[in-house]
Amino acid sequence: MLPTVLWLALFLFASGFFLYIIRGINKNIFLLKNALIWLLISIVLIIFAIFPHVAEWLAMVFGFETTSNFLLSAAVIVLLIMEIKNSVLISKHENRIKTLLQELSIMKSEENKKDR
């Protein structure tokens, strides 16, 4: 069982993180489709703060010796997946920007030819 101070700190952090994400969505800092994973993570953090035995049980099920090893491994995996997803998205956007710049250059070139 977690000490009360640690439990309270975890719960307050998880709740604050959840409220920060909700506030960011409301103020259009985050797009909802991009913030859904962060909402899910914050809800899982709240669940783990309220019911620490869930994290311990999951660690045992997946064969980890300690809960902290499980949580760290899960965090690394989630962040790697998110990074790959973001890299793919950035690549698509860069290609789209390059295409738009090329189209704009062609349009300006054609416009200059008409003006002459």
Q: Could you characterize what this model shows?
A:
The structure is a single chain. This protein is mainly α and 116 residues long. It folds into 2 domains: 1-50; 68-116. It is built from 4 helices and no strands. α1 runs antiparallel to α2, α2 (32-50) packs across α3 and α3 (52-61) crosses α4 (67-115). The longest helix is centred in the C-terminal third of the chain and has 49 residues, at 67-115. It starts with a helix and ends with a helix.
List keywords for this structure.
single chain; 116 residues; mainly alpha; 2 domains; 87% helix
- Cα end-to-end separation: 81 Å
Give the overall shape, derived from the CA principal axes.
elongated
Give the overall pLDDT as a whole number.
92
The ordered H/E elements are HHHH
How many helices?
Answer: 4
Helix content: over 70%
Number of domains: 2
Give the biggest sheet: none
Overall radius of gyration: 23 Å
Pfam families: DUF2304
Protein name: DUF2304 domain-containing protein
Keywords: Membrane, Transmembrane, Transmembrane helix
Organism: Enterococcus faecalis TX0630
